[in-house]
């Protein structure tokens, strides 16, 4: 070939290379090799798309020409675009996708801002850009103001939720009875809290999750009846509910409407409040909650004085002195601990429960008790009252494993009323108070239900802390706004459950997908074994140490009796001996603590050496064989 | 094309006749494992049964190791004068280029596959996603092919192995950094955004990442294969000039 021809061929081929790559990037198919098909449309999305009745428009706004756009966003935009195309294909013509590039000062930009999209600026500077989605059906419009590459694993859920929610003309109503500030501190309470020097509480993300599908109707604990037209009822950490309200809950459930009930033997929120109030001499709040009358009538056993500790599912926490230790009453649960056959938990991979209680079915109960979340068999009870001053290490020693404990359960079937004598009568009037002569039965003209009309569904969970942001999300700043990334599937579980109770099953099958954490099971088992192995030895050492310390204090007391130095040589020697014993025991305890980690560390080192040497050794042996073979 | 096989066989076995190849294999396997277990990699401390933290170093390891394996492909033949001898044989330039490239690629693939004890380790420690492991290995092999394509080209352009090595490290580094925001920002200052986008699409890292997540996307497959094809074509042109 001549030089000119060669150059032309090279240039042509270069153009072809760019073209081929460009064309390949527009091929919509791709192979998802992950075990859970986390990058493909799930059956739930497909079913949901198949049910769409009226056309829906998807407007994807992406300023692809903006300068300084982070490469991660460009890649993510391609991912979002491709996923939306999959939606359009699966909707059989019900979805229309428009890809819009809103250039500055154009009608497209105005439309984007009018729909609630916000321009973003990357950390490196550059032009502001739009990257969001507007979903419209008739006069209903929903948006994702900013796509966040950190939420890639939840992309399908976020999109499906938007497409689903835009079809809801009237959201179902969720009644919320709670003593916790899940919705944030109200303006009235703020003043009171300021006077008491208490921090106002921001609204929790779980309420945002629930608000996406429900209209939340708050119900006061002092109410005597439930507002009309509720579809689902959530009772979270019930405190001082009036008997009439309890009766209303009972009748709501027996009437066939679903109830979400979260009780807690030890609420972190109230524990913290207790600490603050103690500083100002206030009364200690009750940290536990219960609805004993209702729970026992429905055949559920729950003890508000016991907290579950699990040696295997302990969470690693930092102690006051900065050391890392496993805290067995903070449960970090994984995929295996969730009921894979039940819809609300089928797709969950991780959750965290803080000082949870346990639930079980009472023998002979007519209802069906389905455990949804369970601990490992290495779990046992700890008295809630003993947690106040106990150190993490000491708590582990108090646990004697008694088998799996149920943290959350679904109870279904025909429930019997907790009020066999009908609605509770009014409280007798206090002196000077005008008595309401109207009887409760008159307030409920319809006869009280003695038994469920059809099948009733009650979801019970023995913890309330898991609903707080502190244990469910990591908040961070995204272009000046607070964004949240799930730490675990707590929020997904909360949303799944109420949506399941509210009847939208399609969304549940999507959520939680792709968060599949695959932990080192071998290491976890070793940690449990080590703790079990040294448990007795540590207890014995601690007992000896406190005996020695008691002796020392006693002897030192004698020495300084009446401010006079009366230390005989014998006492001085005994003090010296005990001090030496104390140091020796402490040393032994340190050694055991080191031994607890030793097994795992040496496994890590062994694996490092095996991996460093195995293949090089194989290569070396092959080399020797090859060399000898050649010489022959 | 019939002669590709004999060239491949001769070249591939040739690797094992030289101690340099063993040093290369051992060095690669040793460093890749050491990096994964190091404080930067944190493979064991992460407690997650996945090889993410092993494969994330591959684009950087390959940046030096592939040029080291590919620098001698043509430079050595040119320097020692065996290139002329090679072309007196009844083979075409394309046969020779393909045979040599495939042999070197097979050798690099062998290096990648010899990291199998790491896969066994995660399987022992937990329950890894085998689909993701397989696509990660496929991605690593294609990544090695992409680097190698560039290296064979620089090797064909010079007699000097050191020059070939430095040129391939430079060229491959550009193809790695194209995916970084700072680099694309500079490109955007020189070219329109759409041109900068096309150039940024030629980054090794972005195309490799999808494989490590368990996705086989046609655009990533086409990227590596077309890059290999293009560099091999240039290789032929360079040898025939």
TrEMBL record, chain A:
<dbReference type="Pfam" id="PF23357">
    <property type="entry name" value="DUF7088"/>
</dbReference>
<keyword id="KW-1133">Transmembrane helix</keyword>
<keyword id="KW-0812">Transmembrane</keyword>
<dbReference type="Pfam" id="PF09822">
    <property type="entry name" value="ABC_transp_aux"/>
</dbReference>
<dbReference type="InterPro" id="IPR019196">
    <property type="entry name" value="ABC_transp_unknown"/>
</dbReference>
<keyword id="KW-0472">Membrane</keyword>
<dbReference type="InterPro" id="IPR055396">
    <property type="entry name" value="DUF7088"/>
</dbReference>
<protein>
    <submittedName>
        <fullName>Gldg family protein</fullName>
    </submittedName>
</protein>
<feature type="domain" description="DUF7088">
    <location>
        <begin position="36"/>
        <end position="136"/>
    </location>
</feature>
<feature type="compositionally biased region" description="Basic and acidic residues">
    <location>
        <begin position="423"/>
        <end position="444"/>
    </location>
</feature>
<keyword id="KW-0175">Coiled coil</keyword>
<feature type="transmembrane region" description="Helical">
    <location>
        <begin position="607"/>
        <end position="627"/>
    </location>
</feature>
<feature type="domain" description="ABC-type uncharacterised transport system">
    <location>
        <begin position="171"/>
        <end position="496"/>
    </location>
</feature>
<feature type="coiled-coil region">
    <location>
        <begin position="531"/>
        <end position="558"/>
    </location>
</feature>
<feature type="region of interest" description="Disordered">
    <location>
        <begin position="419"/>
        <end position="450"/>
    </location>
</feature>
Automatic annotation (TrEMBL), chain B:
<feature type="transmembrane region" description="Helical">
    <location>
        <begin position="54"/>
        <end position="74"/>
    </location>
</feature>
<feature type="transmembrane region" description="Helical">
    <location>
        <begin position="221"/>
        <end position="239"/>
    </location>
</feature>
<protein>
    <submittedName>
        <fullName>ABC transporter permease</fullName>
    </submittedName>
</protein>
<feature type="transmembrane region" description="Helical">
    <location>
        <begin position="162"/>
        <end position="183"/>
    </location>
</feature>
<dbReference type="InterPro" id="IPR051449">
    <property type="entry name" value="ABC-2_transporter_component"/>
</dbReference>
<keyword id="KW-0472">Membrane</keyword>
<feature type="transmembrane region" description="Helical">
    <location>
        <begin position="130"/>
        <end position="150"/>
    </location>
</feature>
<dbReference type="GO" id="GO:0140359">
    <property type="term" value="F:ABC-type transporter activity"/>
</dbReference>
<keyword id="KW-1133">Transmembrane helix</keyword>
<dbReference type="Pfam" id="PF12679">
    <property type="entry name" value="ABC2_membrane_2"/>
</dbReference>
<dbReference type="GO" id="GO:0005886">
    <property type="term" value="C:plasma membrane"/>
</dbReference>
<keyword id="KW-0812">Transmembrane</keyword>
<keyword id="KW-1003">Cell membrane</keyword>
<feature type="transmembrane region" description="Helical">
    <location>
        <begin position="101"/>
        <end position="124"/>
    </location>
</feature>
<feature type="transmembrane region" description="Helical">
    <location>
        <begin position="20"/>
        <end position="42"/>
    </location>
</feature>
């Amino acid at each position: 070939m001549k030089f000119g021809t060669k150059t032309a061929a090279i240039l042509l081929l270069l153009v072809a290379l760019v073209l081929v790559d460009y064309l390949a990037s527009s091929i919509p198919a791709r192979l998802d090799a992950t075990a859970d098909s986390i990058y493909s449309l799930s059956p739930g999305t497909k079913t949901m798309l198949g049910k769409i009745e009226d056309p829906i428009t998807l407007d994807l706004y992406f300023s692809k020409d903006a300068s300084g756009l982070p490469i991660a966003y460009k890649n993510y935009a391609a991912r979002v675009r491709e996923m939306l195309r999959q939606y359009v294909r699966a909707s059989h013509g019900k979805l229309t996708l428009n890809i819009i590039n809103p250039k500055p000062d154009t009608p497209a930009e105005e439309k984007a801002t009018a729909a609630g999209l916000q321009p973003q600026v990357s950390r490196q500077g550059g032009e502001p850009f739009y990257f969001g989605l507007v979903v419209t059906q008739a006069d209903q419009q929903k948006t994702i103001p900013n796509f966040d590459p950190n939420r890639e694993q939840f992309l399908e859920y976020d999109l499906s939720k938007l497409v689903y929610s835009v079809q809801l003309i009237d959201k179902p109503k969720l009644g919320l009875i709670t003593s916790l500030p899940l919705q944030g501190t109200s303006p009235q309470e703020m003043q009171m809290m300021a006077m008491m020097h208490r921090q106002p509480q921001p609204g929790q993300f779980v309420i945002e999750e629930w608000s996406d599908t429900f209209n939340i109707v708050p119900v006061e604990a002092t109410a005597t009846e439930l507002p009309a037209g509720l579809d689902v009822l959530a009772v979270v950490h019930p405190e001082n509910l009036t008997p009439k309200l309890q009766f209303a809950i009972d009748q709501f459930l027996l009437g066939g409407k679903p109830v979400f009930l979260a009780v807690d033997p030890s609420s972190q929120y109230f524990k913290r409040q207790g600490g603050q109030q103690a500083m100002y001499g206030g009364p200690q709040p009750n940290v536990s909650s219960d609805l004993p009358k209702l729970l026992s009538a429905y055949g559920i056993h729950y003890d508000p004085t016991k907290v579950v500790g699990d040696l295997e599912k302990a969470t690693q926490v930092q102690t006051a002195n900065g050391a890392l230790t496993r805290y067995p009453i903070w449960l970090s649960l994984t995929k295996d601990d969730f009921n894979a056959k039940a819809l609300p938990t089928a797709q969950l991979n991780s959750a965290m429960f803080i000082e949870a209680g346990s639930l079980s079915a009472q023998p002979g109960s007519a209802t069906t008790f389905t455990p949804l979340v369970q601990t490992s068999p290495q779990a046992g009870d700890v008295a809630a009252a003993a947690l106040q001053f106990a150190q993490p290490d000491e708590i582990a020693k108090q646990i004697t494993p008694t088998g799996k404990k149920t943290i959350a359960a679904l109870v279904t079937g025909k429930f019997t009323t907790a009020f066999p004598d009908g609605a509770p009568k009014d409280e007798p009037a206090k002196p000077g108070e005008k008595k309401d002569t109207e009887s409760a039965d008159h307030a409920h003209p319809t006869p009280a239900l003695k038994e469920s009309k059809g099948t009733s569904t009650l979801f019970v969970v023995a913890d309330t802390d898991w609903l707080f942001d502190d244990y469910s999300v990591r908040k961070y700043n995204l272009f000046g706004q607070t964004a949240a990334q799930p730490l675990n599937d707590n929020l997904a579980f909360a949303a799944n459950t109420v949506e399941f109770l509210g009847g939208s099953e399609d969304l549940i099958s999507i959520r939680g997908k792709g968060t599949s954490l695959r932990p080192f099971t071998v290491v976890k088992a070793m940690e449990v074994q080590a703790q079990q192995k040294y448990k007795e030895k540590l207890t014995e050492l601690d007992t000896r140490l406190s005996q020695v310390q008691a002796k020392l204090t006693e002897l030192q007391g004698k020495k300084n009796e009446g401010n006079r130095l009366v230390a005989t040589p014998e006492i001085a020697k005994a003090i010296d001996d005990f001090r030496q014993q104390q140091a020796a025991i402490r040393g032994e305890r340190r050694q055991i603590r080191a031994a607890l980690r030793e097994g795992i560390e040496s496994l890590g080192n062994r694996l490092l050496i095996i991996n460093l040497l195995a293949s090089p050794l194989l290569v070396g042996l092959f080399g020797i064989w090859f060399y000898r073979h050649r010489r022959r | 094309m019939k002669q590709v096989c004999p060239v491949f066989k001769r070249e591939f076995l040739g690797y094992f006749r030289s101690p340099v190849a063993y040093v290369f294999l051992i060095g690669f396997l040793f460093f890749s494992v050491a990096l994964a277990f190091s404080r930067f990699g944190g493979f064991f401390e992460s407690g997650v049964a996945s090889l993410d933290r092993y494969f994330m170093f591959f684009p950087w390891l390959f940046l030096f190791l592939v040029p080291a394996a590919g620098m001698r492909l043509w430079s050595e033949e040119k320097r020692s004068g065996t290139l002329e001898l090679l072309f007196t044989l009844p083979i075409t330039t394309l046969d020779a280029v393909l045979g040599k490239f495939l042999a070197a690629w097979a050798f690099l693939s062998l290096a990648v596959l010899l990291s199998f004890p790491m896969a066994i380790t995660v399987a022992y420690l937990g329950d890894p996603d085998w689909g993701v492991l397989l696509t990660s290995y496929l991605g690593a092999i294609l990544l090695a092919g992409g680097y190698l394509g560039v290296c064979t080209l620089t090797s064909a352009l010079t007699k000097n192995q050191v020059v070939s090595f430095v040129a391939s490290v430079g060229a491959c580094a550009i193809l790695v950094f194209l995916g970084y925001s700072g680099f694309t920002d500079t490109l955007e200052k020189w070219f329109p955004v759409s041109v900068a986008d096309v150039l940024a699409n030629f980054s090794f890292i972005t195309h490799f990442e999808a494989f490590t997540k368990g996705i086989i996307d046609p655009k990533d497959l086409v990227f590596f294969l077309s890059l290999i094809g293009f560099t091999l074509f240039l290789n032929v042109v360079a040898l025939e000039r």
